[in-house]
Amino acid sequence: xNTTADTSATDPPDGSVPNGPFYHGTKxxxxxxxxxxxxxxxxxxxxxxxxxxxxxxxxDAAIWGAELAxxxxxxxxxxxxxxxxxxxxxxLTDQKxxxxxxxxxxxxxxxxxxxxxxxxxxxxxxxxxxxxxHVAELKRRGIHAIND
Length: 148
What we know:
Blueprint: E1 22-26, E2 35-36, E3 53-56, H1 59-68, E4 76-82, E5 87-88, E6 104-107, E7 111-117, H2 125-140
Antiparallel strand pairs: 1-4, 2-7, 3-6, 4-7, 5-6
C-alpha cells in the first residue's frame, strides 16, 4: 500500500502524544506486522548500540533516515505505530533546533510496521552529498548521537 505524508499535522501544545502518521527510514527489508526495536548499532557516530529506535511524523525526515542509513540495498520508508511512549528526539530538537520542527521522536519500545511507503522521492544528489559530508564532519569532530 502506498502512503503519503500528512505534513499539515502539528504536535499537540499540551505535550500529549503527537499526531501521526509516523514513519521510519532505514535500509532494512521489513514487512507489515514486523516489530522494529532498539538495540541495534546506530547509523551515526561510532555506531554504538542504540538505546532507542527513531520515528518521525514528516516524510522529509524519514527520507533522510532512509538515505543516511548504513547498509546494503535501497533506502526504505515504513509507516509505523509506536507500541509505547515516545519522546522528542534530542538529537534534532532543543539541543540543535528550537522546538521540534522535524517532528522527530524516539522510543525504547518497539515500532510496528504498518506498511511500506513506496512513492517517495529522495533528495537531489547535491543535497544528499552535502548532508553526507556534514555527517562525516560530525564524526570527524567526535560529535555523537545522544543515546541516553
